[in-house]
């Protein structure tokens, strides 16, 4: 049994309109996503802006209530638990937010923030709290002298370290990191990624890593899922993605990445067209409007995820057919 | 705790902002005076209703012209004469010769009578001179003669009261801004009005910001039907003009029916608490203001709560499993505190200004003095050149309102975390 599991997870945001604020439609942010994460494994979730990857993370951690489907954590279905019943799981799973500037309360110092969490979940005995805060700061490579600083007195990278410290304070087993480095400078990105990798090893963390950067996911994760318009397009192992990926969308993502080798000249590839509106998703394959392999059938029927090889699944009928035909 | 406050970033910013420091000292002065009025009887209602000097005595260091001074003196001496005759008729009554708050010197009636005769001997000569003011204005020997006689008359008149009967400085202060048509001290009335203004300002400010914050927080954070209810409530209240509401309240409190009901309900504790009939206190004014003024802060707090609810640090707090209460009061409210303070200072000024307008219309303060009543009373005086009543009221109000405006402007910068 997987450590973390989501089954046919759906999240719709209602759109209200008119004089009486009636529900006139819905934004289909997540459309039937299933995933499994084994203990100790890191799953990457990749996709462009607005594809529902953050919503997926927030629904799994129960910041958002799923519209349909279920979330299982260590054998318990957490998506149906009440606020109080969820409490023991709150300390076992944590979330690292994207923007280090807005994810820290501007009126709380580093130690106030950490102490509040430690006290609330009663992580360590009263006498050891101060020591534990210092330990946490050291764990994320911040100097304990910074304990009385307010968030605005830290740099972006330091703030993100503080965010990580807050997530670690409850000694979690599972962490969802929602684009933890995309708001940072490239040099700082590497530091934070290395820190996360060290911590993952040190605490044996299971992680879900949300990103739009294929390189980062390849470097950081064991497996990844590719999302487009709220649906999973492809699941693939991160060991050798350049060879393994099959889905036209994933290939397009790979090709849009610049290659840091001047001898290896490739044609610049840009995806044509717009992402369809999540308010009114197309009936067939969501990627049909921009796909180079598009067929008539793609526009009317949604492709199922088909298992190709070891751990690889792909939702693209033309590719699957071609592979089977050999 | 104190040390931490003094070292905090906000306090250092405040201390650097000198106009804000000066303004807060001025405001502190006003507050101390009003506390002294409430708890120390510095100025009582009786004080400011009492006749202390001849009517329409000029203030602001202006000297009355000779004819006016003579009139005032005559009025004063005549009154003493009248009291003397009264005492003669009933020699048994121990009634002291008291007039205009001053005690006439204890001396035998015969001597007093002689002095009065002496006064009129001098003063009558002056009364007979027509256009005495013009002669004095032209100067010359005749003017010198008039002035020396006037000085003599003034000395006799001053002799009627002792210095001990009242502190000379207090007397001087009392008359420093002149008197109104009833001979009441404008200075005392203006000082008493500080208490009215500060009470109305503070109580309205705290009530309005308190109600607005609580409702705004609930509406913004819970959303749904609570939000709809609060939005409906403030839209409804926003359509009530507070002058009309005040007229309705005045009508409701009239005749003391409500007082009676409340006293029965609270075992007469209510009357002790407010010290008088409801319609005579400031309570109608405060209710009317609070009922309409909470809308502004409520709108702002609701909007800001809506924004903060979606902010990542609030989401982070929710991921931790913190209760709704803890998220609201530890993570949202502290980040709204600057809005509450700024709103309070704006409402404080608004309430004082509205109180003046309402009193000017005769709807506000019913008993005692207020700046609005003083301005109302001086409507016709200004046309006749008697500016001191309206001058005193506006000067006192100007000082307080300006100081609070500067302070609230400065607070806006000081409490904004992004402002260096």
Low-confidence stretches of chain A: none
Number of strands of chain B: 2
* Mean pLDDT rating of chain A: 89
Structural domain tally of chain B: 2
The major β-sheet of chain B equals:
2 strands, antiparallel
CATH class of the largest domain in chain A: Alpha Beta
CATH architecture of the largest domain in chain A: 3-Layer(aba) Sandwich
| Secondary-structure content class of chain B | mainly alpha
The rounded distance between the terminal residues' Cα atoms of chain A is 34 Å
Index terms:
heterodimer; A: 326 residues; alpha/beta; Rossmann fold; 2 domains; eight-stranded mixed beta sheet; four-stranded antiparallel beta sheet; 11 helices; globular; B: 420 residues; mainly alpha; MetI-like fold; two-stranded antiparallel ribbon; 21 helices
Compile the SSE list and pairings.
The complex is a heterodimer of chains A (326) and B (420).
Chain A: E1 4-17, E2 22-37, E3 42-46, H1 53-60, E4 68-73, E5 76-77, H2 83-90, E6 93-96, H3 110-121, H4 129-139, H5 156-169, E7 174-178, H6 186-203, E8 206-211, H7 214-220, E9 223-228, E10 231-237, H8 241-244, H9 248-255, H10 296-300, E11 306-309, E12 312-314, H11 317-325
Parallel strand pairs in A: 3-8, 3-9, 6-7, 7-8
Antiparallel strand pairs in A: 1-2, 1-4, 4-5, 9-10, 10-12, 11-12
Helix pairs in contact in A: 3-4, 3-5, 4-5, 5-6
Chain B: H1 2-7, H2 9-16, H3 18-40, H4 45-49, H5 66-89, E1 98-99, E2 102-103, H6 109-127, H7 132-138, H8 141-159, H9 168-176, H10 186-222, H11 224-238, H12 242-253, H13 257-265, H14 269-274, H15 283-293, H16 295-309, H17 312-319, H18 324-332, H19 337-360, H20 371-377, H21 388-414
Antiparallel strand pairs in B: 1-2
């Amino acid at each position: 049994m997987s450590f973390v599991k989501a089954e046919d997870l759906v999240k719709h945001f209602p759109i209200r309109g008119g004089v009486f604020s009636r529900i006139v439609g819905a934004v289909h942010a997540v459309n039937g996503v299933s995933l499994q994460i084994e203990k100790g494994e890191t799953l990457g979730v990749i996709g462009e802006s607005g594809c529902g990857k953050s919503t997926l993370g927030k629904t799994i951690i129960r910041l958002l209530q799923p519209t349909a489907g279920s979330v299982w954590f260590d054998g318990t279905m957490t998506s149906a638990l009440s606020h109080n019943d969820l409490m023991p799981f709150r300390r076992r799973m944590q979330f690292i937010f994207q923007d280090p500037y807005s994810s820290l309360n501007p009126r709380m110092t580093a130690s106030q923030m950490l102490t509040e969490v430690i006290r609330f979940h009663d992580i360590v005995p009263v006498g050891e709290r101060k020591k534990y805060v210092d330990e946490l700061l050291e764990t994320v490579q911040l100097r304990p002298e910074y304990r009385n600083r307010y968030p605005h007195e830290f740099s972006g990278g330091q703030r993100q370290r503080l965010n990580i410290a807050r997530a670690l304070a409850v000694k979690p087993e599972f962490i969802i990191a929602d684009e933890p480095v995309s708001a940072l400078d490239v040099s700082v990105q590497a530091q934070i990624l290395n820190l996360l990798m060290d911590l993952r090893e040190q605490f044996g963390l299971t992680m879900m890593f949300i990103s739009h950067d294929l390189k980062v996911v390849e470097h950081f994760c064991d497996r990844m899922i590719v999302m487009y318009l709220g649906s999973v397009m492809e699941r693939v192992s991160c060991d050798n993605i350049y060879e393994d990926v099959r889905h036209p969308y994933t290939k397009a993502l790979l090709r849009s990445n610049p290659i840091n080798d001047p001898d290896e000249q490739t044609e610049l590839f840009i995806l044509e067209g717009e992402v369809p509106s999540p308010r009114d998703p197309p009936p067939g394959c969501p990627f049909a409007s921009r796909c180079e392999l598009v067929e008539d059938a793609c526009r009317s029927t949604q492709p199922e995820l088909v298992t190709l090889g070891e751990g690889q699944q792909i939702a693209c009928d033309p590719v699957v057919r071609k592979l089977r035909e050999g | 705790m104190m040390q931490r406050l003094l070292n905090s970033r906000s306090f250092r910013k405040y201390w650097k902002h000198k106009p804000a420091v000066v303004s807060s000292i001025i405001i502190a002065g006003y507050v101390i005076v009003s506390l002294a009025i409430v708890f120390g009887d510095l100025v009582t209602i009786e004080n400011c209703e009492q006749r202390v000097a001849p009517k329409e005595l000029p203030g602001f260091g202006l000297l009355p012209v000779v004819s006016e001074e003579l009139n005032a003196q005559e009025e004063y001496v005549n009154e003493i004469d009248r009291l003397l005759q009264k005492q003669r008729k009933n020699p048994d009554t121990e009634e002291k010769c008291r007039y205009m708050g001053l005690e006439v010197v204890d001396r035998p009636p015969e001597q007093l009578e002689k002095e009065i005769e002496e006064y009129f001997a001098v003063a009558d000569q002056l009364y007979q001179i027509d256009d005495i003011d013009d002669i004095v204005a032209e100067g010359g020997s005749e003017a010198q003669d008039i002035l020396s006689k006037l000085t003599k008359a003034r000395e006799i008149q001053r002799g009627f009261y002792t210095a001990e009967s009242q502190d000379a400085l207090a007397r001087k202060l009392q008359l420093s801004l002149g008197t109104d048509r009833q001979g009441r001290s404008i200075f005392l009335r203006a000082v008493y009005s500080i208490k009215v203004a500060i009470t109305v300002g503070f109580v309205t400010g705290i009530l309005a910001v308190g109600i607005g914050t609580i409702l705004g927080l609930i509406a913004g954070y819970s959303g749904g039907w609570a939000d709809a209810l609060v939005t409906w409530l403030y839209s409804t209240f926003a359509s009530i003009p507070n002058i009309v509401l005040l007229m309705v309240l005045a009508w409701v409190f009239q005749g003391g029916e409500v007082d009676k009901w409340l006293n029965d309900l609270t075992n007469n504790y209510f009357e002790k608490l407010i010290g008088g009939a409801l319609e005579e206190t400031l309570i109608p004014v405060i209710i009317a203001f609070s009922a309409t003024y909470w809308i502004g802060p409520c709108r702002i707090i609701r909007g800001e709560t809506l924004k903060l609810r979606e902010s990542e640090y609030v989401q982070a707090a929710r991921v931790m499993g913190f209760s709704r209460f803890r998220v609201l009061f530890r993570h949202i409210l502290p980040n709204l505190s600057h809005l509450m303070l700024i709103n309070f200072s704006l409402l404080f000024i608004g309430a004082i200004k509205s109180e003046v307008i309402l009193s000017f219309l005769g709807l506000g303060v019913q008993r005692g003095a207020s700046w609005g009543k003083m301005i109302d009373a001086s409507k016709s005086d200004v046309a006749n050149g008697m500016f001191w009543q309206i001058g005193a009221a506006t000067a006192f109000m100007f000082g307080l309102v300006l100081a609070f405006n500067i302070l609230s402007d400065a607070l806006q910068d000081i409490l904004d975390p992004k402002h260096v």
